[in-house]
Design a protein that fits this description.
Layout: E1 6-9, E2 12-15, H1 22-31, H2 33-36, H3 50-65, E3 70-75, E4 82-92, E5 98-105, H4 114-127, E6 134-139, H5 144-153, E7 156-167, E8 170-180
Parallel strand pairs: 5-6
Antiparallel strand pairs: 1-2, 2-3, 3-4, 4-5, 6-8, 7-8
Helix pairs in contact: 1-3
The structure holds coenzyme A.
The site of coenzyme A has 17 residues, from strand 5, helix 4 and helix 5.
Amino acid sequence: MSEPVRMRTPRLLIRLLDIEEAELLLRYRMENREHLRPWEPLRNTSHYTLDGCRQTIEAGLEAARSDRGFPFVMLSPDGGEMLGSFTFANVVRGVFQACHLGYGMARKSEGQGLMFEALDAAVRYAFGPLDFHRVMANYMPRNDRSGRLLERLGFEKEGYAKRYLKIEGLWEDHVLTAKIRTQG
Ligand SMILES: CC(C)(COP(=O)(O)OP(=O)(O)OC[C@H]1O[C@@H](n2cnc3c(N)ncnc32)[C@H](O)[C@@H]1OP(=O)(O)O)[C@@H](O)C(=O)NCCC(=O)NCCS
């Protein structure tokens, strides 16, 4: 993909992070450690170090270059603060043209419609420049907020997978949803 990987919405700048911006990621991870913990895999200590953040960013840039995944961050319009993140991961091309979408945002930025604003633009980007036909997003049944968000975005339920992802050290059931490109 030759286009720059970035989007602007009324309240957000959305793009990949550069290695020199590792401090933004570290601050976000530290501030939201407890908030994100129930919805994420167990993290090792390097997740909360500057070096660990640099490694995450480097791996993300390499994934985007090789069309394996796109780990976007949501920044304040001046780029000075990280408010959330989402990733198009597990890219499969060919007859599938699909990926998984994962997301999370800062506790202080919840409840303002910012994730909806980001993902609404991102899904259009996924069906446009990134050329996906299917974006899949899955959530734990008790994650009502996430379920409501996906419903508003037009994701449809496709199934229920038992013991699907290891979240906070436990294999958790997930509701499976997807949004499918209607044209092309
Ligand atoms: C899931 C998550 C991203 C949802 O965040 P969110 O802020 O609720 O999502 P939205 O951007 O859709 O915002 C909707 C909320 O903003 C409110 N809102 C305020 N202004 C709004 C506006 N201009 N437009 C739309 N909604 C607005 C809505 O009323 C709604 O609030 P409510 O849920 O209290 O009714 C967030 O809770 C999160 O990061 N959770 C932890 C990680 C996680 O669960 N990740 C997903 C794993 S599957």
